[in-house]
């Protein structure tokens, strides 16, 4: 065999080896991708399985209605009835008793304070008969709705850690504090200003809200919306009496949306959002005449040079940033820099006008 033929043979063998190697690599890659797909599929199946198990568990929850005996053991606080002619126990605490039904309570019309937290309740309609109710705690249940008949004296209602997805049906004229943390609410709708004229605190932490829009309650003072997925400040014009706004742990990058109609807003918590620039975003809050305390910790902007000073330049009436109050020295420095920048801007504007006149 000639040298040329031997060389060709070796080249063919090398080519075959390379092809075989490429096939092996491709096969390994395909196998890895298949394993990854299988893993993802397994994860999805696991999630679906967990959801199904949860549903099955809910369905399997044995019926455990509240009984007269249990009510008798859980009553306290003897008071005069509304007409003053008799006495009745007005407080009921039946929390953490694995209850599935409290329909018996429709007969206990003198109750004023009721705690049914940490049970397996899906329906509270029986409580609509308790027209003297002042306080209702129904946290950690399986409720999907807060709908109740109008309760003329209800002042405090708490429905934290349920499966509530709508605010429809909240129409209690004396209600002052409504707590709906850690539910599945995706939008704020159905809160009637006329029927909630005394509501001053609304808590909606840990839901699935995308925007602040939908709260049209002129007498509201405190609004808690932390730990949602809010990326837009919107529809705040009617909150004339708002003093405290909590938007911690959301997805805000742009602080557009604040308005001078928020005349009494003093405290804003924006910790744990995605605000990247103090100079660009903080001045958008300058329209708030009473803003005195701001939290911007754990935003990218917090890492900027001269962070504290730049915030104060943008909001010169601010008294506290994050946990620390501003010193008199910081305030004076911010005022000087602000005045200097105003002067420089005016000079640039004048220079631009002179150049236009020359042209």
Mean pLDDT: 87
Structural class: alpha/beta
N- to C-terminal separation? 89 Å
The gyration radius over C-alpha positions equals 31 Å
Question: Which range best describes the helical content: under 10%, 10-25%, 25-40%, 40-55%, 55-70% or over 70%?
Answer: 25-40%
Which range does the strand content fall in? 5-15%
What can you tell me about this protein's structure?
- The chain is an alpha/beta fold and 359 residues long.
- Helices cover 30% and strands 12% of the residues.
- The protein contains five helices and 13 strands.
- It has a 13-stranded mixed beta sheet with strand order 1-2-3-4-5-6-7-8-9-10-11-12-13.
- Helix 4 crosses helix 5.
Task: Please give a handful of descriptors for the protein shown.
single chain, 359 residues, alpha/beta, 13-stranded mixed beta sheet, 5 helices, 13 strands, disordered N terminus
Task: Draw up the topology in text.
Layout: H1 3-60, H2 68-74, E1 75-80, E2 87-93, E3 113-115, E4 135-137, E5 156-158, E6 177-179, E7 201-203, E8 222-224, E9 244-246, E10 267-269, H3 278-281, E11 293-295, H4 307-314, E12 320-321, E13 324-325, H5 328-358
Parallel strand pairs: 2-3, 3-4, 4-5, 5-6, 6-7, 7-8, 8-9, 9-10, 10-11, 11-12
Antiparallel strand pairs: 1-2, 12-13
Helix pairs in contact: 4-5
